[in-house]
Write a structure and sequence with these properties.
about 25% helix, Elongation Factor Tu (Ef-tu), domain 3, about 35% strand, seven-stranded antiparallel β-sheet, conserved putative lor/sdh protein from methanococcus maripaludis s2 fold, elongated, alpha+beta, single chain, 3 domains, about 400 residues
Length: about 400
């Protein structure tokens, strides 16, 4: 259901963007047509002026406000080198438990509709196990009967050993049978109900895996379900052997799950580096690097993700947000604000990309004002402002 709502909101946002872009194109074309005039010799002054400033893009302040256009002034700053790779989100050890059957019998879920993802409280019953209609009988009832019989025999043995009617060895055997029966019975007594033995969750969290079905026969120790707390997760990244020399300089990471366009920063999620491997696996040429972090609530354990490992920072580097970059036929561009309502398309050469910002090797200078949001609309305005040759009014 959340996926359907998300796609619906995404489609609405796309339609809104397309509508705004259409209005901008229409306005730019109208302004372009009205800006030129033809004098007595048939010369279009507007077209000549356009030719003289063919690299300028007119984008009014009103249009900028409408699309939420923002800019950033380029300056030198710190930039962390990155190792771009892939990885997987995993649950942290101790944050997940497997609930096992405590008795033989037929499983009956307390809530028959319970599925993966359902929340559960600490101590809450998940299933009851009953063997009442099985050939061997209900083990819980048998445990109670054996305990009561062992208790009576032990009490009798205590009197007989005092009168030396039975030996100390016989007394100890009676005592051992009693203690064994007592432990077995008490292990189930607190969870015994009329419908069977209750099996509860030792932690609060959500059902990650439901491993048996309603009415299925289980034996003691058989896994029934996996419960995860989901509040602390791990990020396991796989690093190529070629980057082994950089592993000791890794301090943090950014990652972008495959199901989301958002880039998460471990620095914002109380993240920390746990370890990195000293050798690659037998079946792989990659070295594992593991981080731990807090789950903000929308990260799915088990999902695969794009990972940007952050290493030692560089100083005095020019960089821009990833949202500033556009690509055309393998070349990269940004849009510069040259005046209040005039913009310019600028080619750039890219360096490292840490998922948030991109290093600029050439094409920009300190003090340039780069468009960071609303880039797509400026690009459309640049296209719509090109007047075909011979077009005049």
């Amino acid at each position: 259901m959340q996926s359907v709502v998300f796609e619906s909101n995404l489609n609405k946002n796309k339609m809104k963007t397309y509508a705004i872009s259409f209005l901008i194109i229409a306005a730019m074309m109208l302004n372009g047509c009205n800006s030129g005039h033809v004098d007595g010799d048939g010369h279009n002054h507007g077209a000549v002026e356009k030719d003289e400033h063919s690299d300028e893009i007119v984008f009014t302040k009103e249009q900028a406000v409408l699309v939420g256009l923002t800019t950033e002034t380029i300056s030198q700053g710190a930039f962390q080198n990155v190792i771009k790779t892939s990885g997987q989100i995993q649950t942290s050890p101790g944050g997940e438990v497997t609930i096992a059957a405590t008795s033989n019998g037929i499983v009956s879920f307390v809530d028959p509709s319970i599925t993966e993802g359902a929340s559960i409280r600490e101590g809450e019953a998940i299933v009851t196990i009953s063997a009442e209609k099985l050939l061997d009988g209900d083990p819980a009832i048998k445990a109670k009967a054996e305990y009561e019989a062992a208790l009576k025999e032990f009490q009798r043995s205590e009197e007989l050993v005092k009168d030396k009617v039975i030996s100390e060895k016989e007394y100890e055997q009676s005592r051992l049978r009693y203690l064994t029966a007592k432990n077995t019975y008490e292990a189930q007594a607190s969870n015994m109900t009329e419908s069977g033995v209750r099996v509860t969750s030792p932690i609060g969290g959500y059902i990650r895996n439901r491993l048996v079905g309603e009415g299925e026969y289980v034996t003691v120790g058989q896994p029934i379900a996996t419960v995860s707390q989901n509040n602390r997760l791990q990020l396991r990244a796989e690093v190529s052997e070629n980057n082994y020399k950089y592993l000791k300089t890794i301090s943090s990471a950014n990652f972008k799950p495959g199901y989301d366009n958002r880039v998460y920063k471990l620095a914002d999620l109380n993240g920390r580096l746990l370890s990195f491997g000293k050798a690659s696996g037998e079946q792989s040429f990659f070295i594992p690097v593991t981080f731990e972090f807090d789950n903000p609530g929308d990260i799915i354990p088990g999902s695969f993700t794009e990972v940007f490992l952050l290493t030692s920072p560089q100083n005095n580097v020019l960089s821009v947000p990833v949202t500033s970059i556009t690509e055309e036929q393998g070349l990269h561009f940004v849009y510069l604000q040259v005046h209040d309502e005039e913009y310019k398309k600028q080619g750039v050469t890219l360096g490292q990309n840490n998922g948030i910002r991109v290093q600029i090797l050439s094409g920009l200078n300190v003090g340039d004002k780069v468009v960071t949001e609303g880039v797509y609309q400026v690009k459309l305005a640049a296209t719509s402002s090109v007047i075909p040759e011979g077009h005049n009014h």
